[in-house]
Amino acid sequence: MGPKSRSKRPSLLSKGRPPTVKPKQAALSAKATRNLIRSHHQLLKARVQAEKAGDTARVSSIDAQIQANGGLDSYQIASKLGQSLDRGGDSSKILIDWIKPELAQWKPDLPKLRVLEVGALSTKNACSRTPALDVTRIDLNSQEPGILKQDFMERPLPASDAERFHILSLSLVLNYVPDAEGRGDMLKRCREFLTAQSPITFVPTLFFVLPVACVDNSRYVTEDRLLDILSSLGFQLMQSKRSNKLIYQLWHYTGQSATRSFKKEMLNPGAKRNNFAIILRQG
């Protein structure tokens, strides 16, 4: 084992977020929506690399390109369109369907189960319409009342179980984090926000949605590698399903963690594969 690495502050989600501009109002086709999201992600990755290299001129140039594409607001409009009913629907419907047996125990005289939605885009999704759930919504660039403008990586750690949550939702969030170490830091941090203290029989739960390409077409991540990473953090996979574009998973947090290190290593060579990766460090 090599020398102990110097500890550093976890990367912030906002690190890769550029200045925003007024959102475009024109309707986007499904193809245009995908292209906008893909382009935004590619620019963010390039921006992180330029920052690490200390190339301020390149960072400024990339920021200008992102602004020319409509900035973060346009990205979020595209994301909302991607979750609209005619393009796959509200992902939280799958979460509610998976936990429906547990929710059947809940009665109106009991405290609600607390949900933290990271990267929330709407206050009207299936979670918000479920009486048993009390939903806290955060996003870097809140687009409507009821969504707190906040970086999950800067959210204060809970001081007690009363500030923790029974469910944590990361729907199309991890893939937005612009660097591999930041993704590992985010997964580790999730554990701090979950509680096993519940008014009904309910295991602390992580709901997780990623593009299928992150596990099927990455050089550095496979579905098995994702399973290994989350298992080492104390999560147990309970449900998994796929659509043409997305993979949905539900994980129970057991607390039985034995964090291992996972480096960026070639698992699936191929010229046409993507570079999505997750680096997990001990500690």
Describe the structure.
- 30% of the residues lie in helices and 15% in strands.
- With 283 residues, the protein is of the alpha/beta class.
- The protein folds into 2 domains: 13-82, no CATH class; 87-253, Rossmann fold.
- Strands 3-2-1-4-5-7-6 form a 7-stranded mixed β-sheet, with helices on both faces.
- Helix 5 links the parallel strand 4 (167-171) and strand 5 (205-211).
- The radius of gyration is 19 Å and the shape is globular.
- The two termini are 14 Å apart.
- Shape summary: globular
Q: Roughly what percent helix?
A: 25-40%
Radius of gyration computed on alpha carbons = 19 Å
Count of distinct strands = 7
- The fraction of residues assigned to DSSP E strands is 15-25%
Q: In total, how many domains does the architecture comprise?
A: 2
Instruction: Predict the CATH topology of the largest domain.
Output: Rossmann fold
* Strand arrangement in the largest pleated sheet: 3-2-1-4-5-7-6
| Poorly predicted tracts of residues | 17-26, 82-88
CATH architecture of the largest domain: 3-Layer(aba) Sandwich
Q: What structural class do helix, strand and pairing data support?
A: alpha/beta
Largest sheet: number of strands, sense, barrel closure: 7 strands, mixed
What is the straight-line distance between the termini?
14 Å
Notable characteristics:
2 domains, 30% helix, rRNA (adenine) methyltransferase activity, alpha/beta, seven-stranded mixed beta sheet, methyltransferase, 283 residues, Rossmann fold
